Amino acid sequence: MGYALKIYEAFRDLGEDKASVLAEFVEYVESRKSATSEELKETELKLQKEIEQVRLEVEGVRKELKETELRLQKEIGETKASLIKWMFLFWTGQIIAFAGLLKFMLH
User: Fold this and answer.
1) HEC string of the chain?
2) Is the pTM above the cut of 0.70?
């Protein structure tokens, strides 16, 4: 037996109209509960799809970040190598110039 019928029978002695209105209200609430459950399930499915889409986007961003990190590490390594090369040339030139100056001063 549904709640609407139980409510109707419990309040029938207050009057058919009042009991009927109360029973109709209980039926309405029960129907909304069912509709709300269905809406909730639909919303849950939509959210699950959106969450999955966000996860895929996050994975893509992580992949892009990793690629960028690797590219930057490579560029930093190349810059270091270039800097060391130029430092070597600079210091070699300085030593040669200093040796020439020292030779000139000692003779």
Assistant:
1) CCHHHHHHHHHHHHCHHHHHHHHHHHHHHHHHHHHHHHHHHHHHHHHHHHHHHHHHHHHHHHHHHHHHHHHHHHHHHHHHHHHHHHHHHHHHHHHHHHHHHHHHHHC
2) no
25-80: pLDDT as tens digits: 778 887 777 667 788 889 999 999 999 999 999 999 999 999 999 999 999 999 99
Work out how many domains the chain is built from and give that number. 1
By residue range, what is the domain housing residue 82? 3-106
